[in-house]
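Minutes, project check-in
Item: structure for the 342-residue chain
Input as provided by the requester:
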Amino acid sequence: MFGIFDKKKDMQLVIDDKPEMILQAKETILNGALRHNIPFPYSCKVGGCGSCKCILVEGKVKELTDKSYLLSKEEIKNNYILGCQSIPKTRVVIKLPAVAFEHQIVTAVISEQKALTHDIFEVTLTLDKPMPFQAGQYVNVEVSDEEIPPRSYSFAHDFRDTSLSFFVRVIPNGKMSNWLTAPENINRNVVVNGPQGEFYYRESERDLLCIAGGSGLAPIISMLEAALASSNTMINRNLTLMMGARTQKDLYYSDEIKKIKKRWKGVFEFKAVLSEEPESSNWQGLRGFVTEHLDKTNCHNTQGYLCGPPPMIDAAIATMNTLGIDSEHIYFDKFLDQSQAS
């Protein structure tokens, strides 16, 4: 009898200059936008990456998680929220952050699959038209004729007209990663949605500290290649690139990194750190976790770019903060696998 008083109301949502839409009870801004076929940047959908951040212009929302670990103090001050973790409590108006390149939906074909390690492949797509992007960004990839959830992949190189590549880590039971790397799917069509993301180079006079884990090396390589291609100021800055891996068999792209190092004008240090390499092996490099090799030397007056598994990034940010790098000088992109994404 009293149930009618507990009924949750649908809420109105306005995104930029698009028509007002109705969100269902308890529906997040991101899910509502996607249900209405509104292009909205996202990756994990669980509040772990920050890709869906937007500006709350009007109205009130219920925030499902603490956003302070993903958004800067300046962003919080300017009313940024996470679309995937915000449920409207009133009529809400939001604004999406400005993007450097036009968002597109492009058809592509899988043209090459190259094994880089036992579980990481470089997958190359040929697009039916160019998709300009900012080095460090990513796209969502979808298979139109299969029941496979879309997945996000970062560009692994600088802009190359109608060709783009990803570093794809094959996840056990991961539908998309196994499909993209299966030999029988060469020449199959996919749909590419992007570019998306705000992980890209920022001008600064600070030294650079880049940390990559697994396939998180892709956007770092993309940024370094773009800097060399355009001869921008990034190549004059001292750079430390740290790559975290389990064993030697998990390391890849070493030769390509050496080529980049030769062309870099500032001091360029590459440090591979192995966490599970057998003590009896011939490895002479660093062991343990990347965070164990962060110190006041490589964190002094530094700007950080981090890509890889969330635990690695969270630990690295905490250590870098302790060593004096404020979060406003740290940019990151968390790579969540299919078990962590909805």
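Outcome recorded: The two ends are 36 Å apart (CA to CA).
No further action items on this chain.
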